[in-house]
Amino acid sequence: MILAEGITEEILLTAFSNAAGLDFDKNGIKIVSSGGKNKILKQYDRLRREAGFPILMIFDSDGHELAEATKKSLRSIDDVYVIPQGEFEDILPEELICKAINSHYRLFGEINVADIEGTGLKSHILERLWQKKGFGKFRKAEFASIVAGHISNATSLSTELKVLFSKINN
User: Fold this and answer.
1) How many CA atoms lie within 13 A of 48 on its CB side?
2) Which residues, at least 6 apart from 97, have a Cβ–Cβ distance to it below 8 Å?
3) What is the rounded distance in angstroms from the CA atom of residue 36 to the CA atom of residue 133?
4) Taking the CB of residue 163, how many other CB atoms lie within 10 A of it?
5) Are 122 and 96 a contacting pair, CB within 8 Å?
6) 85-130, pLDDT tens digit by residue?
7) 136: left (phi over 0), alpha (psi -120 to 50) or beta
8) What are residue 116's phi and psi, to 5 degrees?
9) Biggest distance spanned by C-alpha atoms of the chain
């Protein structure tokens, strides 16, 4: 089981799983969107006492301290992964983001990598882009679904996603 902070991870990890060569359905891997870093810990605490299967918790970088504190109480079959910088959106390949947005919003004009580069969280950059381009309100779940529809093969995986899937596979 994978306990993740939000819906973005739930949607996109499932979509990326086939490209990573690890079909979640065939391997019995379930992703649960916990609704935040503090809720991951509550779910883990309950599940580790009840479940006999391995659990991987995925935290955004701002959950680093919670993740470190949790490592002391992990069962030997469980693990923690902290996104090195930012949130899940920050480890998505920028070319994939552009391809998905351009395909979905093609009537509103194209974007390129320069439009989504910058300092700060990718979700904040995307919120500003949505406003600038007139795409409406930025919603993470909708964005994740748009990107998920454009994941085709292993070239859709960033280096950091490959690291994460290696941890999931182990």
Assistant:
1) 19
2) 116, 126, 147
3) 29
4) 14
5) no
6) 899 999 999 999 999 999 998 866 689 999 998 888 999 999 999 9
7) left
8) -115, 5
9) 52
